[in-house]
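Appendix B: a complete holo record

For completeness, this appendix reproduces one full record from the ligand-bound portion of the collection. The bound molecule is adenosine-5'-triphosphate. The inputs are the chain sequence and the ligand SMILES; the output is the full three-dimensional arrangement of the complex, encoded as structure tokens. No fields have been trimmed.
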Amino acid sequence: MTLIITPDNTDFSAYMAETEPQVKVMPAESWTDQLVASTQQAERITGAKLPWSKTHDLIRFRPGEVTLWQGINGHGKSEMLGQACLGFAAQDERSCIASFEMRPVKTLRRMLRQTAQNDQPGETAARRLMSWLTGRMWIYDQLGRASPQALAAVIRYCGDVLKIRHFVVDSLMRVVQGEDDYNGQKDFVELLCRLAQDHGMHIHLVHHARKGESEDAVPGKFSAKGSGAIVDQVDQMLTVWRNKKKERLVEKALKVPGSSIPDELVSQPDSLLICDKNRHGEWEGRISLWHHAPSLQYTPDSRRIPLDIIGSLE
Ligand SMILES: Nc1ncnc2c1ncn2[C@@H]1O[C@H](COP(=O)(O)OP(=O)(O)OP(=O)(O)O)[C@@H](O)[C@H]1O
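The structure of the chain with adenosine-5'-triphosphate bound, as generated:
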């Protein structure tokens, strides 16, 4: 089974057509079993988890939903999402990454550092990762752009044939050309919501945020570029924000010979993951994360201890 899927090695033509809507009018009592089951798992939060236990009761990724991952350029959206997909793999949930901005080997190299927990992983670590990812992760190899229809065919194929549970689209602007094509953006996000529901998968859609006055200001719900319908339609919205002000202050503090980083700076998060919209959960708020540079991992506290993503599962 190949890890990298391309139009050259996979025939997506059978998946181009939209399926006919199924009969959706049903008697209310046909949901009896589901309703009864829901009373037995009241308050139980379901869905795939992020790698950090402090997020488990707050953010989840359920089948049939779409999460928008927004952030300013270079603030770590792709890297954090890559780590999240490794976490999904560790939960035995299959992912497919469609990154139109990064070659598959670069995406995999980041994951190699994240799983090896250092910046010099060798051949053994690379082979171990690839063997562990077999049956857990796929990459759609398409740099540049894809049309919404072509991408939809890939998603249908991934749902039907590969039984993918998490599909990453990185990023929206690579599929809908034109920042002011508001109708195109609305239609595309609507299509993703339908595909997520039809195939019982979670779609993670990466999107750029406007910088605003400065990168030091955390982007909010209304900072997403393009149409307001993007945020309106998704189930969940997460913002990845990098604390560049801290990076500048640390650099400045370390310029003084013999100095160390002041405690109040150490305890400040390197990045925030902010939940601004959570349609099926109650929690909205900020999660502090610290970036471990050698492994490119986000870690849950200022000790910056990378997680053993593969080892703990073998
Ligand atoms: N808190 C942080 N401290 C230091 N480096 C960070 C931090 N967060 C992210 N980075 C680094 O920033 C770089 C950019 O990350 P990434 O490519 O994931 O960003 P992005 O938001 O997806 O960017 P783009 O929108 O341009 O695709 C990576 O090299 C990553 O290691």
